[in-house]
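Q: Protein A?
A:
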Amino acid sequence: MKKHFFILVLLSLTHCAKESETKSDILKKDSIVQNDSLKTANSSLESGTVNKEETLKTLNNEILSTLKMKDYVKFTNYIHPEKGVRSSMYGYVNPKKDKNFTKEEFKKYVTTNIKFTWGDQDGTGDPLILSIKDYLIQWVFKKDFTKGEFHFNTFKGTGNSLNNLKEIYPNNDFTENYIGGSEEYGEMDWNCLRFVFEELYGTYYLVAVINDEWTI
Protein backbone atom coordinates (compact mmCIF):
# COMPACT_ATOMS: atom_id res chain seq x y z
CA MET A 1 0.00 0.00 0.00
CA LYS A 2 2.83 2.40 0.95
CA LYS A 3 4.59 1.51 -2.29
CA HIS A 4 1.49 2.44 -4.35
CA PHE A 5 1.13 5.73 -2.48
CA PHE A 6 4.78 6.62 -3.15
CA ILE A 7 4.34 5.94 -6.87
CA LEU A 8 1.22 8.17 -7.02
CA VAL A 9 3.06 11.02 -5.29
CA LEU A 10 6.00 10.65 -7.67
CA LEU A 11 3.72 10.73 -10.74
CA SER A 12 1.93 13.80 -9.39
CA LEU A 13 5.18 15.69 -8.85
CA THR A 14 6.40 14.76 -12.32
CA HIS A 15 3.14 16.03 -13.86
CA CYS A 16 3.33 19.33 -11.94
CA ALA A 17 6.93 19.83 -13.04
CA LYS A 18 6.02 19.27 -16.70
CA GLU A 19 3.00 21.59 -16.40
CA SER A 20 5.19 24.28 -14.84
CA GLU A 21 7.72 23.93 -17.65
CA THR A 22 4.93 24.21 -20.24
CA LYS A 23 3.55 27.40 -18.67
CA SER A 24 7.04 28.85 -18.48
CA ASP A 25 7.61 28.11 -22.16
CA ILE A 26 4.32 29.79 -23.10
CA LEU A 27 5.20 32.91 -21.13
CA LYS A 28 8.60 33.04 -22.76
CA LYS A 29 7.07 32.70 -26.24
CA ASP A 30 4.51 35.44 -25.50
CA SER A 31 7.27 37.74 -24.29
CA ILE A 32 9.28 37.09 -27.43
CA VAL A 33 6.30 37.83 -29.67
CA GLN A 34 5.37 41.03 -27.79
CA ASN A 35 8.90 42.45 -27.88
CA ASP A 36 9.96 41.15 -31.27
CA SER A 37 9.99 44.57 -32.98
CA LEU A 38 11.84 46.22 -30.12
CA LYS A 39 14.45 43.47 -29.98
CA THR A 40 14.98 43.47 -33.74
CA ALA A 41 15.55 47.21 -33.88
CA ASN A 42 17.67 47.41 -30.75
CA SER A 43 19.75 44.31 -31.51
CA SER A 44 20.74 45.94 -34.77
CA LEU A 45 22.00 48.92 -32.77
CA GLU A 46 23.99 46.73 -30.39
CA SER A 47 25.58 44.77 -33.22
CA GLY A 48 26.74 47.98 -34.85
CA THR A 49 24.95 47.25 -38.13
CA VAL A 50 22.95 50.50 -37.81
CA ASN A 51 23.35 53.71 -35.83
CA LYS A 52 21.01 55.20 -33.24
CA GLU A 53 19.17 57.38 -35.74
CA GLU A 54 18.35 54.41 -37.98
CA THR A 55 17.21 52.38 -34.97
CA LEU A 56 14.86 55.10 -33.71
CA LYS A 57 13.62 55.77 -37.23
CA THR A 58 12.63 52.11 -37.43
CA LEU A 59 10.83 52.30 -34.09
CA ASN A 60 9.24 55.60 -35.13
CA ASN A 61 7.84 54.05 -38.29
CA GLU A 62 6.59 50.96 -36.47
CA ILE A 63 4.76 53.09 -33.91
CA LEU A 64 3.20 55.18 -36.68
CA SER A 65 2.07 51.96 -38.33
CA THR A 66 0.31 50.77 -35.16
CA LEU A 67 -1.53 54.10 -34.93
CA LYS A 68 -2.57 53.99 -38.57
CA MET A 69 -3.78 50.39 -38.24
CA LYS A 70 -5.40 51.18 -34.85
CA ASP A 71 -3.43 48.29 -33.35
CA TYR A 72 -3.25 49.72 -29.86
CA VAL A 73 -2.33 46.41 -28.24
CA LYS A 74 0.88 46.39 -30.27
CA PHE A 75 1.38 50.09 -29.56
CA THR A 76 1.41 49.25 -25.85
CA ASN A 77 4.55 47.13 -26.33
CA TYR A 78 6.57 50.26 -27.12
CA ILE A 79 5.62 52.08 -23.89
CA HIS A 80 8.36 52.48 -21.29
CA PRO A 81 7.78 49.74 -18.67
CA GLU A 82 8.78 51.97 -15.74
CA LYS A 83 7.94 55.55 -16.75
CA GLY A 84 4.91 54.91 -18.92
CA VAL A 85 3.98 57.36 -21.70
CA ARG A 86 3.01 61.04 -21.48
CA SER A 87 0.71 62.67 -24.04
CA SER A 88 0.93 66.39 -24.83
CA MET A 89 -1.65 68.07 -27.06
CA TYR A 90 0.77 70.76 -28.20
CA GLY A 91 4.50 71.45 -28.31
CA TYR A 92 4.52 72.77 -24.77
CA VAL A 93 4.91 69.82 -22.38
CA ASN A 94 3.29 70.29 -18.98
CA PRO A 95 4.33 67.41 -16.67
CA LYS A 96 1.79 68.51 -14.04
CA LYS A 97 -1.23 68.50 -16.37
CA ASP A 98 -0.45 66.24 -19.32
CA LYS A 99 -1.82 62.73 -19.07
CA ASN A 100 0.74 60.06 -18.21
CA PHE A 101 -0.28 56.42 -18.28
CA THR A 102 1.75 53.46 -17.13
CA LYS A 103 1.98 50.59 -19.56
CA GLU A 104 -0.55 48.62 -17.50
CA GLU A 105 -2.98 51.57 -17.25
CA PHE A 106 -2.80 52.23 -20.97
CA LYS A 107 -3.47 48.59 -21.78
CA LYS A 108 -6.39 48.55 -19.31
CA TYR A 109 -8.16 51.68 -20.57
CA VAL A 110 -7.41 51.71 -24.30
CA THR A 111 -10.17 49.16 -25.00
CA THR A 112 -12.76 51.00 -22.90
CA ASN A 113 -14.92 54.09 -23.44
CA ILE A 114 -13.75 55.74 -20.22
CA LYS A 115 -12.99 59.39 -20.99
CA PHE A 116 -10.12 61.57 -19.80
CA THR A 117 -9.41 65.29 -20.00
CA TRP A 118 -6.31 65.73 -22.16
CA GLY A 119 -5.95 69.49 -21.99
CA ASP A 120 -7.43 72.72 -23.34
CA GLN A 121 -7.93 73.32 -27.04
CA ASP A 122 -6.15 76.29 -28.53
CA GLY A 123 -8.43 79.10 -29.62
CA THR A 124 -11.55 78.08 -27.70
CA GLY A 125 -10.01 77.01 -24.43
CA ASP A 126 -12.51 74.14 -24.30
CA PRO A 127 -11.24 70.98 -22.61
CA LEU A 128 -10.63 68.00 -24.86
CA ILE A 129 -12.42 65.05 -23.25
CA LEU A 130 -12.03 61.72 -25.03
CA SER A 131 -11.31 58.05 -24.41
CA ILE A 132 -7.72 56.96 -25.07
CA LYS A 133 -8.74 55.30 -28.32
CA ASP A 134 -10.63 58.38 -29.59
CA TYR A 135 -7.78 60.65 -28.53
CA LEU A 136 -5.33 58.59 -30.57
CA ILE A 137 -7.65 58.64 -33.58
CA GLN A 138 -8.96 62.20 -33.45
CA TRP A 139 -5.94 64.05 -32.08
CA VAL A 140 -2.67 62.13 -32.11
CA PHE A 141 -3.11 60.66 -35.59
CA LYS A 142 -5.28 63.48 -36.96
CA LYS A 143 -3.17 63.34 -40.15
CA ASP A 144 -1.50 60.41 -41.86
CA PHE A 145 1.93 60.93 -40.35
CA THR A 146 3.27 57.82 -42.09
CA LYS A 147 3.55 60.18 -45.07
CA GLY A 148 5.24 62.88 -43.04
CA GLU A 149 8.78 64.20 -43.30
CA PHE A 150 11.08 62.46 -40.81
CA HIS A 151 13.47 64.39 -38.55
CA PHE A 152 15.77 63.17 -35.79
CA ASN A 153 16.55 65.30 -32.73
CA THR A 154 15.59 68.45 -34.62
CA PHE A 155 12.45 70.49 -35.24
CA LYS A 156 10.94 71.28 -38.63
CA GLY A 157 7.58 72.26 -37.17
CA THR A 158 8.10 75.73 -35.69
CA GLY A 159 5.79 78.65 -35.20
CA ASN A 160 4.40 80.77 -32.42
CA SER A 161 3.72 77.81 -30.12
CA LEU A 162 6.06 77.23 -27.19
CA ASN A 163 8.23 74.14 -27.52
CA ASN A 164 10.00 72.99 -24.35
CA LEU A 165 10.72 69.38 -25.32
CA LYS A 166 14.47 69.74 -24.86
CA GLU A 167 13.98 71.32 -21.44
CA ILE A 168 11.73 68.54 -20.17
CA TYR A 169 13.70 65.75 -21.85
CA PRO A 170 17.27 67.14 -22.01
CA ASN A 171 18.96 63.74 -22.28
CA ASN A 172 16.45 61.98 -24.52
CA ASP A 173 16.37 61.34 -28.24
CA PHE A 174 13.25 62.22 -30.20
CA THR A 175 11.79 61.91 -33.67
CA GLU A 176 9.50 64.28 -35.53
CA ASN A 177 7.04 63.49 -38.32
CA TYR A 178 6.19 66.73 -40.10
CA ILE A 179 3.39 67.51 -42.55
CA GLY A 180 3.66 70.93 -44.14
CA GLY A 181 0.86 73.45 -44.45
CA SER A 182 -1.02 74.56 -47.55
CA GLU A 183 -0.63 77.72 -49.64
CA GLU A 184 -4.29 78.48 -48.94
CA TYR A 185 -3.50 79.10 -45.28
CA GLY A 186 -0.04 80.52 -45.76
CA GLU A 187 1.44 77.17 -44.71
CA MET A 188 0.36 77.85 -41.14
CA ASP A 189 -1.82 74.70 -41.06
CA TRP A 190 1.22 72.46 -40.57
CA ASN A 191 1.11 69.53 -38.15
CA CYS A 192 3.72 67.30 -36.60
CA LEU A 193 3.89 64.32 -34.30
CA ARG A 194 6.90 63.73 -32.08
CA PHE A 195 8.00 60.65 -30.18
CA VAL A 196 10.44 60.84 -27.27
CA PHE A 197 12.48 57.74 -26.46
CA GLU A 198 14.41 56.59 -23.42
CA GLU A 199 16.81 53.68 -23.09
CA LEU A 200 16.30 51.03 -20.44
CA TYR A 201 18.68 48.08 -20.12
CA GLY A 202 19.83 48.53 -23.70
CA THR A 203 16.36 48.88 -25.22
CA TYR A 204 14.65 52.07 -26.37
CA TYR A 205 11.07 52.71 -25.25
CA LEU A 206 8.50 55.42 -25.86
CA VAL A 207 8.09 57.93 -22.99
CA ALA A 208 6.21 60.77 -24.70
CA VAL A 209 3.84 61.43 -27.59
CA ILE A 210 3.72 65.12 -28.53
CA ASN A 211 1.56 66.79 -31.15
CA ASP A 212 2.39 70.27 -32.38
CA GLU A 213 0.82 72.80 -34.74
CA TRP A 214 0.38 76.52 -35.24
CA THR A 215 -1.46 78.03 -32.29
CA ILE A 216 -3.26 81.32 -31.90
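Q: Protein B?
A:
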Amino acid sequence: MATDNKDFFKTQTDSSRVKATIISEYFPSYCKIIGRHHVPKKFGYYDMFAGPGMYEDGGLSTPLLVAGKCANDSYLKDRVWMVFNDMMYGDTLKENFEANYPDGTFRYKPFFANRVFGEWPKIDEFLTKNTMEGFYNECPSLLFIDPFGYKHINTSVLAKFLTYWGNEVFIFVNTKRLNAAFENDKFQEDLKIVFPATYQTIKDEKKLISGTVEEKHVFIIENLGKEFQKVLNGRVYYTAFQFREEDQETPSHYLLHITKGAKGFELVKQVYNQYANVDRVLGDYVTYTFDPKKEASSEITMFGDDFKQANLDSLKTQLLAKFAGQSISAEELFTIHQKDCLYARTHYTSALRQLYQEGKISAEIRDDKNHRESVLIIKECIITFK
Protein backbone atom coordinates (compact mmCIF):
# COMPACT_ATOMS: atom_id res chain seq x y z
CA MET A 1 0.00 0.00 0.00
CA ALA A 2 1.15 3.54 -0.74
CA THR A 3 3.61 4.95 1.76
CA ASP A 4 6.42 7.44 1.98
CA ASN A 5 8.76 4.73 3.25
CA LYS A 6 11.68 4.39 0.83
CA ASP A 7 11.85 0.68 1.69
CA PHE A 8 8.28 0.09 0.52
CA PHE A 9 9.28 -2.05 -2.48
CA LYS A 10 11.46 -4.45 -0.49
CA THR A 11 8.65 -6.76 0.62
CA GLN A 12 5.14 -6.96 -0.77
CA THR A 13 2.41 -6.83 1.88
CA ASP A 14 -0.79 -8.84 1.64
CA SER A 15 -2.76 -5.62 1.14
CA SER A 16 -0.55 -4.50 -1.75
CA ARG A 17 -0.86 -7.93 -3.33
CA VAL A 18 -4.66 -7.85 -3.09
CA LYS A 19 -4.82 -4.30 -4.48
CA ALA A 20 -2.67 -5.22 -7.49
CA THR A 21 -4.56 -8.45 -8.08
CA ILE A 22 -7.93 -6.67 -8.11
CA ILE A 23 -6.72 -4.28 -10.85
CA SER A 24 -5.13 -7.03 -12.93
CA GLU A 25 -8.23 -9.24 -12.66
CA TYR A 26 -10.56 -6.39 -13.53
CA PHE A 27 -8.81 -4.99 -16.61
CA PRO A 28 -9.04 -8.00 -19.00
CA SER A 29 -12.75 -8.49 -18.23
CA TYR A 30 -13.35 -4.76 -18.65
CA CYS A 31 -11.83 -4.94 -22.14
CA LYS A 32 -13.98 -7.93 -23.09
CA ILE A 33 -17.16 -6.18 -21.94
CA ILE A 34 -16.28 -3.05 -23.92
CA GLY A 35 -15.52 -5.23 -26.94
CA ARG A 36 -19.01 -6.74 -26.92
CA HIS A 37 -20.43 -3.30 -27.72
CA HIS A 38 -17.67 -2.03 -29.97
CA VAL A 39 -14.19 -3.33 -30.80
CA PRO A 40 -12.00 -0.21 -30.65
CA LYS A 41 -8.69 0.37 -32.37
CA LYS A 42 -7.05 -0.23 -29.00
CA PHE A 43 -7.71 -0.42 -25.26
CA GLY A 44 -5.72 1.75 -22.87
CA TYR A 45 -4.31 0.85 -19.49
CA TYR A 46 -2.80 3.91 -17.77
CA ASP A 47 -0.93 3.63 -14.46
CA MET A 48 0.29 7.00 -13.20
CA PHE A 49 2.13 5.84 -10.04
CA ALA A 50 3.36 2.55 -11.45
CA GLY A 51 6.35 1.79 -9.21
CA PRO A 52 9.14 -0.57 -10.33
CA GLY A 53 6.73 -3.38 -11.23
CA MET A 54 8.46 -5.84 -8.94
CA TYR A 55 9.33 -6.03 -5.25
CA GLU A 56 12.78 -7.05 -4.06
CA ASP A 57 11.24 -10.23 -2.66
CA GLY A 58 10.05 -11.17 -6.17
CA GLY A 59 6.41 -10.16 -5.75
CA LEU A 60 4.83 -8.61 -8.84
CA SER A 61 2.95 -5.33 -8.66
CA THR A 62 0.21 -4.02 -10.92
CA PRO A 63 2.16 -3.23 -14.15
CA LEU A 64 3.64 -6.70 -14.54
CA LEU A 65 0.45 -8.43 -13.41
CA VAL A 66 -1.63 -6.53 -15.98
CA ALA A 67 0.98 -7.17 -18.68
CA GLY A 68 0.99 -10.87 -17.86
CA LYS A 69 -2.78 -11.11 -18.25
CA CYS A 70 -2.62 -9.30 -21.60
CA ALA A 71 0.40 -11.22 -22.94
CA ASN A 72 -1.39 -14.52 -22.37
CA ASP A 73 -4.54 -13.42 -24.19
CA SER A 74 -4.27 -13.12 -27.98
CA TYR A 75 -7.25 -10.76 -28.15
CA LEU A 76 -5.68 -8.34 -25.67
CA LYS A 77 -2.11 -8.80 -26.81
CA ASP A 78 -2.96 -7.17 -30.14
CA ARG A 79 -5.21 -4.44 -28.74
CA VAL A 80 -3.89 -3.14 -25.41
CA TRP A 81 -1.71 -0.05 -25.11
CA MET A 82 -0.08 0.35 -21.70
CA VAL A 83 1.13 3.71 -20.42
CA PHE A 84 3.20 3.75 -17.23
CA ASN A 85 4.45 6.74 -15.28
CA ASP A 86 6.42 6.95 -12.06
CA MET A 87 8.59 9.88 -11.00
CA MET A 88 11.00 7.67 -9.04
CA TYR A 89 10.86 4.24 -10.67
CA GLY A 90 10.02 4.92 -14.33
CA ASP A 91 13.39 3.69 -15.64
CA THR A 92 13.49 0.69 -13.30
CA LEU A 93 9.98 -0.30 -14.36
CA LYS A 94 10.99 -0.18 -18.02
CA GLU A 95 13.93 -2.50 -17.31
CA ASN A 96 11.81 -4.95 -15.30
CA PHE A 97 9.01 -4.86 -17.84
CA GLU A 98 11.23 -5.49 -20.86
CA ALA A 99 13.06 -8.29 -19.05
CA ASN A 100 9.73 -10.12 -18.87
CA TYR A 101 8.06 -8.77 -22.03
CA PRO A 102 10.69 -7.77 -24.60
CA ASP A 103 10.05 -5.36 -27.43
CA GLY A 104 7.55 -6.88 -29.87
CA THR A 105 5.53 -8.79 -27.26
CA PHE A 106 2.62 -6.41 -27.71
CA ARG A 107 1.35 -4.88 -30.93
CA TYR A 108 1.28 -1.46 -29.28
CA LYS A 109 4.61 -0.59 -27.71
CA PRO A 110 4.19 0.29 -24.00
CA PHE A 111 5.09 3.85 -23.03
CA PHE A 112 7.18 4.67 -19.95
CA ALA A 113 7.61 8.07 -18.29
CA ASN A 114 9.02 9.47 -15.05
CA ARG A 115 7.11 12.72 -14.60
CA VAL A 116 5.44 14.13 -11.49
CA PHE A 117 1.77 13.33 -11.90
CA GLY A 118 -0.37 16.33 -11.08
CA GLU A 119 2.47 18.76 -11.81
CA TRP A 120 3.23 17.94 -15.45
CA PRO A 121 0.63 19.62 -17.70
CA LYS A 122 1.16 17.21 -20.62
CA ILE A 123 -0.16 14.33 -18.51
CA ASP A 124 -3.40 16.21 -17.90
CA GLU A 125 -3.58 17.03 -21.61
CA PHE A 126 -3.07 13.36 -22.45
CA LEU A 127 -5.78 12.17 -20.04
CA THR A 128 -8.33 14.73 -21.22
CA LYS A 129 -7.66 14.30 -24.95
CA ASN A 130 -10.79 13.41 -26.91
CA THR A 131 -10.44 9.88 -28.33
CA MET A 132 -14.04 9.65 -29.52
CA GLU A 133 -14.91 8.94 -33.14
CA GLY A 134 -18.63 9.37 -33.52
CA PHE A 135 -20.49 7.63 -30.69
CA TYR A 136 -17.63 5.33 -29.71
CA ASN A 137 -14.29 5.78 -28.04
CA GLU A 138 -11.50 4.29 -30.16
CA CYS A 139 -9.24 4.02 -27.11
CA PRO A 140 -11.44 3.26 -24.08
CA SER A 141 -9.09 3.23 -21.12
CA LEU A 142 -8.77 2.21 -17.50
CA LEU A 143 -6.81 4.72 -15.44
CA PHE A 144 -5.23 3.67 -12.13
CA ILE A 145 -3.71 6.19 -9.75
CA ASP A 146 -2.05 5.18 -6.48
CA PRO A 147 -0.63 8.45 -5.14
CA PHE A 148 1.56 8.91 -2.09
CA GLY A 149 -1.17 10.38 0.07
CA TYR A 150 -3.89 12.24 -1.80
CA LYS A 151 -2.30 15.48 -3.10
CA HIS A 152 -2.40 14.44 -6.75
CA ILE A 153 -6.08 13.53 -6.93
CA ASN A 154 -7.36 16.19 -9.34
CA THR A 155 -11.05 15.39 -9.53
CA SER A 156 -11.75 17.83 -12.38
CA VAL A 157 -9.15 16.19 -14.63
CA LEU A 158 -10.31 12.68 -13.74
CA ALA A 159 -13.93 13.66 -14.34
CA LYS A 160 -13.04 15.00 -17.79
CA PHE A 161 -11.32 11.67 -18.54
CA LEU A 162 -14.55 9.88 -17.56
CA THR A 163 -16.65 11.85 -20.03
CA TYR A 164 -15.38 9.69 -22.89
CA TRP A 165 -17.36 6.51 -23.52
CA GLY A 166 -15.93 3.45 -21.77
CA ASN A 167 -13.28 5.22 -19.69
CA GLU A 168 -13.06 4.19 -16.03
CA VAL A 169 -10.90 5.10 -13.03
CA PHE A 170 -9.46 3.32 -10.00
CA ILE A 171 -8.07 5.57 -7.24
CA PHE A 172 -6.23 4.20 -4.23
CA VAL A 173 -7.35 6.76 -1.65
CA ASN A 174 -5.48 7.37 1.59
CA THR A 175 -8.55 8.25 3.67
CA LYS A 176 -6.42 8.31 6.80
CA ARG A 177 -4.49 11.31 5.47
CA LEU A 178 -7.56 12.92 3.94
CA ASN A 179 -9.31 12.71 7.29
CA ALA A 180 -6.37 14.42 9.01
CA ALA A 181 -6.03 17.03 6.26
CA PHE A 182 -9.42 18.55 7.02
CA GLU A 183 -8.07 19.48 10.46
CA ASN A 184 -4.95 21.23 9.14
CA ASP A 185 -5.20 24.69 7.59
CA LYS A 186 -2.18 24.27 5.33
CA PHE A 187 -3.84 21.44 3.37
CA GLN A 188 -7.10 23.21 2.52
CA GLU A 189 -6.02 24.29 -0.96
CA ASP A 190 -5.17 20.65 -1.76
CA LEU A 191 -8.61 19.58 -0.55
CA LYS A 192 -10.25 22.07 -2.89
CA ILE A 193 -8.65 20.19 -5.80
CA VAL A 194 -9.97 16.87 -4.49
CA PHE A 195 -13.44 18.34 -3.81
CA PRO A 196 -13.78 21.19 -6.33
CA ALA A 197 -17.58 21.34 -6.26
CA THR A 198 -18.44 20.72 -2.61
CA TYR A 199 -15.33 21.46 -0.53
CA GLN A 200 -16.97 23.88 1.92
CA THR A 201 -20.07 21.74 2.39
CA ILE A 202 -18.03 18.62 3.09
CA LYS A 203 -15.74 20.47 5.49
CA ASP A 204 -18.73 21.83 7.41
CA GLU A 205 -20.58 18.51 7.51
CA LYS A 206 -17.49 16.58 8.55
CA LYS A 207 -17.21 18.71 11.70
CA LEU A 208 -20.59 17.34 12.79
CA ILE A 209 -19.50 13.68 12.66
CA SER A 210 -18.87 12.40 16.16
CA GLY A 211 -18.87 8.68 15.36
CA THR A 212 -16.11 6.12 14.87
CA VAL A 213 -12.95 6.51 12.83
CA GLU A 214 -14.50 4.27 10.19
CA GLU A 215 -17.58 6.46 9.93
CA LYS A 216 -15.35 9.45 9.21
CA HIS A 217 -13.49 7.53 6.53
CA VAL A 218 -16.75 6.33 4.99
CA PHE A 219 -18.01 9.91 4.92
CA ILE A 220 -14.91 10.98 2.98
CA ILE A 221 -14.94 8.16 0.44
CA GLU A 222 -18.70 8.45 -0.15
CA ASN A 223 -18.40 12.16 -0.77
CA LEU A 224 -15.48 11.68 -3.12
CA GLY A 225 -17.65 9.36 -5.19
CA LYS A 226 -20.50 11.87 -5.10
CA GLU A 227 -18.08 14.62 -6.13
CA PHE A 228 -17.67 12.97 -9.53
CA GLN A 229 -21.44 12.81 -9.86
CA LYS A 230 -21.62 16.52 -9.05
CA VAL A 231 -18.84 17.55 -11.45
CA LEU A 232 -20.18 15.38 -14.28
CA ASN A 233 -23.81 16.29 -13.56
CA GLY A 234 -25.05 12.76 -14.18
CA ARG A 235 -25.21 9.20 -12.87
CA VAL A 236 -21.85 7.86 -11.77
CA TYR A 237 -21.34 4.44 -10.21
CA TYR A 238 -18.67 4.45 -7.51
CA THR A 239 -17.65 1.44 -5.46
CA ALA A 240 -15.04 1.35 -2.71
CA PHE A 241 -13.03 -1.60 -1.40
CA GLN A 242 -11.78 -1.03 2.13
CA PHE A 243 -8.30 -1.95 3.35
CA ARG A 244 -7.80 -2.09 7.09
CA GLU A 245 -4.67 -1.12 8.97
CA GLU A 246 -1.94 -3.73 9.37
CA ASP A 247 -2.14 -3.43 13.17
CA GLN A 248 -5.62 -1.97 13.89
CA GLU A 249 -9.26 -2.62 13.03
CA THR A 250 -9.74 0.81 11.44
CA PRO A 251 -9.48 1.50 7.68
CA SER A 252 -6.40 3.13 6.18
CA HIS A 253 -7.17 3.17 2.44
CA TYR A 254 -9.97 2.55 -0.02
CA LEU A 255 -9.68 1.40 -3.63
CA LEU A 256 -12.34 3.53 -5.29
CA HIS A 257 -13.70 2.50 -8.69
CA ILE A 258 -15.59 5.08 -10.75
CA THR A 259 -17.54 4.46 -13.95
CA LYS A 260 -20.49 5.84 -15.85
CA GLY A 261 -21.52 2.34 -16.93
CA ALA A 262 -23.69 -0.12 -15.02
CA LYS A 263 -21.72 -3.03 -16.51
CA GLY A 264 -18.52 -1.73 -14.96
CA PHE A 265 -20.32 -1.43 -11.63
CA GLU A 266 -21.50 -5.01 -11.98
CA LEU A 267 -18.02 -6.27 -12.86
CA VAL A 268 -16.12 -4.49 -10.10
CA LYS A 269 -18.41 -5.91 -7.41
CA GLN A 270 -17.79 -9.41 -8.72
CA VAL A 271 -14.02 -8.85 -8.55
CA TYR A 272 -14.14 -7.17 -5.14
CA ASN A 273 -16.21 -10.10 -3.95
CA GLN A 274 -13.33 -12.50 -4.62
CA TYR A 275 -10.82 -10.69 -2.41
CA ALA A 276 -12.74 -9.40 0.59
CA ASN A 277 -12.24 -11.43 3.76
CA VAL A 278 -14.30 -9.60 6.41
CA ASP A 279 -17.83 -10.77 7.20
CA ARG A 280 -20.26 -7.88 7.50
CA VAL A 281 -23.64 -7.17 5.95
CA LEU A 282 -23.14 -5.01 2.87
CA GLY A 283 -24.98 -1.70 2.83
CA ASP A 284 -24.66 2.07 2.89
CA TYR A 285 -22.07 1.94 5.66
CA VAL A 286 -20.30 -1.37 5.01
CA THR A 287 -18.46 -2.26 1.82
CA TYR A 288 -16.17 -5.06 0.65
CA THR A 289 -13.29 -5.19 3.12
CA PHE A 290 -9.84 -6.75 3.34
CA ASP A 291 -8.13 -7.18 6.67
CA PRO A 292 -4.46 -8.23 6.28
CA LYS A 293 -4.49 -9.65 9.79
CA LYS A 294 -6.99 -12.32 8.66
CA GLU A 295 -5.40 -13.26 5.36
CA ALA A 296 -3.44 -16.21 6.71
CA SER A 297 -6.35 -17.53 8.75
CA SER A 298 -8.63 -20.40 7.77
CA GLU A 299 -11.82 -18.56 8.67
CA ILE A 300 -14.74 -19.09 6.28
CA THR A 301 -15.95 -15.79 4.90
CA MET A 302 -19.06 -14.74 3.09
CA PHE A 303 -16.92 -14.07 0.04
CA GLY A 304 -15.62 -17.60 -0.39
CA ASP A 305 -17.62 -20.69 -1.33
CA ASP A 306 -19.72 -20.27 1.79
CA PHE A 307 -21.84 -17.22 2.49
CA LYS A 308 -22.85 -15.58 5.71
CA GLN A 309 -26.59 -15.98 5.86
CA ALA A 310 -27.18 -12.47 7.17
CA ASN A 311 -26.13 -11.02 3.82
CA LEU A 312 -28.32 -13.35 1.82
CA ASP A 313 -31.28 -12.75 4.13
CA SER A 314 -30.90 -9.01 3.64
CA LEU A 315 -30.85 -9.37 -0.14
CA LYS A 316 -33.79 -11.80 -0.10
CA THR A 317 -35.87 -9.33 1.92
CA GLN A 318 -35.10 -6.57 -0.58
CA LEU A 319 -36.05 -8.73 -3.56
CA LEU A 320 -39.31 -9.92 -1.99
CA ALA A 321 -40.33 -6.34 -1.28
CA LYS A 322 -39.37 -4.87 -4.67
CA PHE A 323 -40.70 -7.61 -6.95
CA ALA A 324 -43.76 -8.83 -4.98
CA GLY A 325 -46.38 -10.33 -7.29
CA GLN A 326 -44.22 -9.92 -10.41
CA SER A 327 -42.96 -12.33 -13.05
CA ILE A 328 -39.59 -11.27 -14.40
CA SER A 329 -36.52 -12.83 -15.96
CA ALA A 330 -33.65 -13.42 -13.55
CA GLU A 331 -31.34 -11.39 -15.80
CA GLU A 332 -33.69 -8.40 -15.85
CA LEU A 333 -34.20 -8.61 -12.09
CA PHE A 334 -30.45 -8.60 -11.56
CA THR A 335 -29.86 -5.75 -14.02
CA ILE A 336 -32.50 -3.56 -12.38
CA HIS A 337 -31.65 -4.24 -8.75
CA GLN A 338 -27.85 -4.39 -8.82
CA LYS A 339 -27.58 -0.75 -9.98
CA ASP A 340 -28.52 0.50 -6.52
CA CYS A 341 -26.72 -1.86 -4.14
CA LEU A 342 -23.37 -3.50 -3.43
CA TYR A 343 -24.32 -7.14 -3.99
CA ALA A 344 -22.58 -9.02 -6.80
CA ARG A 345 -24.08 -11.46 -9.30
CA THR A 346 -22.98 -14.41 -7.15
CA HIS A 347 -25.06 -13.13 -4.24
CA TYR A 348 -28.19 -12.89 -6.40
CA THR A 349 -27.77 -16.45 -7.62
CA SER A 350 -27.54 -17.79 -4.05
CA ALA A 351 -30.39 -15.60 -2.75
CA LEU A 352 -32.80 -16.58 -5.55
CA ARG A 353 -32.02 -20.28 -5.15
CA GLN A 354 -32.77 -20.04 -1.46
CA LEU A 355 -36.05 -18.24 -2.14
CA TYR A 356 -36.96 -21.04 -4.56
CA GLN A 357 -36.16 -23.70 -1.95
CA GLU A 358 -38.27 -21.81 0.58
CA GLY A 359 -41.24 -21.77 -1.81
CA LYS A 360 -41.35 -17.98 -2.01
CA ILE A 361 -40.72 -17.89 -5.75
CA SER A 362 -41.18 -20.23 -8.68
CA ALA A 363 -38.66 -20.48 -11.50
CA GLU A 364 -38.92 -21.77 -15.06
CA ILE A 365 -35.95 -21.92 -17.42
CA ARG A 366 -37.29 -21.64 -20.96
CA ASP A 367 -34.37 -22.62 -23.17
CA ASP A 368 -35.21 -26.29 -23.86
CA LYS A 369 -32.11 -27.47 -22.01
CA ASN A 370 -31.73 -29.65 -18.97
CA HIS A 371 -30.42 -27.74 -15.94
CA ARG A 372 -29.42 -29.08 -12.57
CA GLU A 373 -29.91 -25.75 -10.87
CA SER A 374 -33.28 -24.21 -10.02
CA VAL A 375 -32.26 -20.63 -10.89
CA LEU A 376 -29.76 -19.18 -13.34
CA ILE A 377 -29.15 -15.47 -13.90
CA ILE A 378 -30.12 -15.58 -17.57
CA LYS A 379 -32.94 -14.00 -19.56
CA GLU A 380 -34.54 -17.41 -20.18
CA CYS A 381 -35.05 -18.00 -16.44
CA ILE A 382 -38.43 -16.56 -15.46
CA ILE A 383 -38.95 -15.84 -11.78
CA THR A 384 -42.44 -15.45 -10.30
CA PHE A 385 -42.77 -13.94 -6.84
CA LYS A 386 -45.67 -15.43 -4.88
